[in-house]
């Protein structure tokens, strides 16, 4: 009952704040301006990810009020406080980037510094490799997740649906274990936020989250992913992040080989191919929903029956979706010839 009450209140707060934020953006012309290369043709309010952070922060107090004293003590733990400080810094830095544009190198520098400090959140004794090497892998992996999720925020509702699937199954996994840890509560807080945001972000999108939203989500997903890997459930992370990892990694490699920067805004990710070939965001959105439906079935069996090998199916499914998006380009070239 407490969880349901929290969901309703958090969902209502988020939707209300987003609608107010949207009006403010329109009034002060804080919008994403279409360009020649942009996949959007309208002026859309952006930077609404800062609302994610505000509701997230308020939700901590709301949960403390709704749940018992053990939860109140939980939020005072050192690890959670460090997590919140890091999340606060990256969220506001990213919101400033939405407003003013920060050079990618500077953004990356602050991300590396922040994530390096956050390595103190983990018990690295669980990893049977040298400490410095463990820290290197964690920092690189976490920063990479933050940025590839930021790269996938290019089509209406795309990152939102992927993130919803991720947080739902993390919540489901720890709920099955009756393990009410940081990952459980973070997922509990983020799910209603994303559900409310999806109402305004599904195609045709009325609002964008901007870097302040994608970095916020990437930071939390990276934190949870590392915890899951250290708990020997890397299979769940492979399944839940298969598509963004494959799409972004393949695209970045191709981009670098052509002499471009990895962060160049070329709108050349596979999931954007249908849109650039005169399809619409709904096509990509519903394809992604179907993909997440099948991923959900796979992950469900992974959790209930501990079938870790099923993560291979997730990778295969992600490759099939990649080829489907690529087929739009193939068909266009055939028509031209």
Could you characterize the architecture of this molecule?
There is one protein chain. It is built from 13 helices and two strands. It has 337 residues and is mostly helical. The chain has a domain at 2-236. The chain has a two-stranded antiparallel ribbon with strand order 1-2.
Short précis:
This protein has a domain at 2-236.
Order of helices and strands: HEEHHHHHHHHHHHH
Structural class: mainly alpha
Q: What topology, given as strand order, has the largest sheet? A: 1-2
Mean pLDDT: 91
Proportion of residues in extended strands: under 5%
Low-confidence stretches: none
Number of helices: 13
Report the sheet with the most strands, covering strand number, pairing sense and barrel closure. Answer: 2 strands, antiparallel
Helix content: over 70%
End-to-end distance, in Å? 61 Å
Quick one: overall form? globular
Number of strands: 2
| Rg over CA atoms | 20 Å
Ordered list of secondary-structure elements with their pairings:
Blueprint: H1 2-27, E1 31-32, E2 44-45, H2 49-66, H3 69-74, H4 78-100, H5 104-118, H6 131-151, H7 158-177, H8 182-201, H9 210-230, H10 234-257, H11 273-276, H12 281-305, H13 311-336
Antiparallel strand pairs: 1-2
Give structural attributes.
globular; 13 helices; two-stranded antiparallel sheet; mainly alpha; 1% strand; 337 residues
